[in-house]
Every structure is written in structure tokens, then in C-alpha cells.
Design a protein that fits this description.
The chain is mostly helical. The chain has one domain. It has 15 helices and no strands. Helix 3 packs antiparallel against helix 10 and helix 4 runs antiparallel to helix 5.
Amino acid sequence: MARRFLMEKRVFFAMKKWLTLALGPAISVAIIYVLIGDDLGAVHDELTQARYVYLLPAGGLLVAGLLTRAMRWHVLTDQRLSIWHSFHILNVGYFLSSLVPLRLGDVARAYMTTRLEPPVAAFTAISTIVIERLLDLLALIAMIGLMLLLLDVPSEVTSAGAVVSMMALLASLALAALALKPAWALTVLRWMLQRFPLLERFDHQARLQHFIEGVQPMGQPRIAVGALLWTVVSWAFSLAAGYIILFMLFDSPTLAATVSLIVLATLSVALPAVPGNLGPFEGAVVGGLWIGGMVASASPPENAPAVALGVVLHALTLAIYITLGLVGLVVEHASVRQITHGAKSFAEESSTEASAQPRSIAQESVS
């Protein structure tokens, strides 16, 4: 059964890989054509008139955001990962996620921690990355609520924003409860597996166990407060960078436009695209500025300032990721080929181990 499930799992990921590689270029080209059409001259005019002096403070704030995220990872590992290694390994992860297909950055980060002296266990690193994703998701939900509250929208939509913010608060409370009482989740899963044995084949035991390992550090007040603090600071730097770079092409940026820009740009990474997320990122910038009232239309030629801003912001972000990622590889004495190969091998081994559990939670609760 375990071997059969492993084969099914590998087939699923293989199909997902080829689907992503096939759809990515098509989606990127389609979005770029919709954004620009035949009116490339309007975007060129905006780029020639831009005030590029604002790139310096915006870039500095983006780098500061990376540093605060490294501080958060340092806290989540309970200082087992130094700030120096945390910063450089984090940058390598962002570098790989931006340019390598299938976004191996997070797995690469976990693999690189095992090369340190003393090493940090890969699953420990993965658990902390799980917390990072949960904290960022909660922050994103809160910003979506803020975006809806700031925009001039009907009261029904404003109420939806309040509901979304409340959901973020409830999710935070649930995360805290799970961190303090991890046995509750196992009890619920045992109850479900006893009543729905079909769920056994999906190996929820290993997944839940890794998830619990990830959130348990949040049960320590010192780590929880530090992680939450650095999350807020890192997103504040992102918002500040987005607000400042708007001055490159707009005279009166607004907080609503900034929040919309950051929210949609963050969500754009979920879409299949060519490496570098070319197309979806620019489309998200245009959509955010249109929703925020900075451009009259999301279609050409009215969207030309937003397209130009998206191109410059995307180039700035990639330049930072590439530069700091290459520096990180040098500092950590690694190469792209070595890290990607190690990350893929680690992912395959983890999949095999997770799929070969000899006993289930339901069986353990009976014995």
C-alpha cells in the first residue's frame, strides 16, 4: 500500500510539474499582451520620464525587509541558526524561487541548514518555514481586510473586509492554541480516522506531525512575540518600499493603492509563469494600482504608468534577489547546481519516508 501510494504521489507531482512548465510561458505571454497590446510606445514614454532616484530608498527598504525576515527565522530556530547564516541562506532561497522552475527555494533553505556546523536538522528548518508561511498568510489576510476598508467600495464589501480581518484574528488564535496544545490536533485526527478510514491512504499522520512540529515553537512566548514582531516589521518595510517607489511615476500616491499593490503582487506568485514570474507580477501591479485609483483603466494605453512601474519594480526586486543570492552562495560555499540537486534529493527522500509509515494514528490509538 505504501509503495502504491508513493507511486501515485510521484505521478501527481510529475503531472503538476509538466502542467506548470506547459502553462507558465503561455500565461506569461498572454498577460503581457493584454497589458501592453500594440501600444509599447506609451510604456516606453513613461519609462523615459520616470524619476529613478526613488529606486535607491525603495531598494534599501526591500533589503531591510529581507534582513528582518532573516531575524524572524533566527528567532524561530531558537537562535540555532545564526543571523549571518539566516540572512544568506534566506537570500539563496529567494534567488532560487525567483529563477528556478518549481520554486525549490524553501526546500533548498532546509537542505542548506544541514551543511552548517553544527548542522540544523532539515525537518526542523522546514517546520520553521511552515511557521513563516502561516505568519505571512495571516499578515496578508489582515492587509486584504485593510485594503477593503481603505477603498471607496460599497458597505457590503467593507463588511467583507471586517470579516476577513476577523478570520485572520481567529486563525491567529487557532495557531496559538495548536502551539500550546498540539495533542488536540492529534485527538481530532484520530477521531476522524476512526470514522473515515479512507483518509488513511493520504498519510495525514506524517503531514500533521510535521505541521505540529512547526507550530510548537510558537507556544514559547519569547519566540512567538519575536516572530510576530519581525513579521509586522518586515511587511511594514514592504509597504514603505511600495509607497516610495510610486513616487517614481505618480505625484500623489495613496495608502490604499500601496496596500492593493503589495497584496496583489504577493498573490501573483501563485500563478504559473516563466521563471521570474514575468507577466503575472506586472499584471498584479497594474491591477493593484487600478483598484487603488492610481490609473483610470487596467487596459492600454491608460495603464501605461502602472505597467512601467511594474516592470521597474520587478527588475529591482529580481536584481536584489540575484545579487544577494549570489553573495549568499559564495558565503555558504555552495553552487546553484549543488543546492538544487541536494534540494531535489532531499525532497524525494522526504516523500519516501513520509509515505512509508508502518502504523497509522488510528492503529496507534487502538493498540
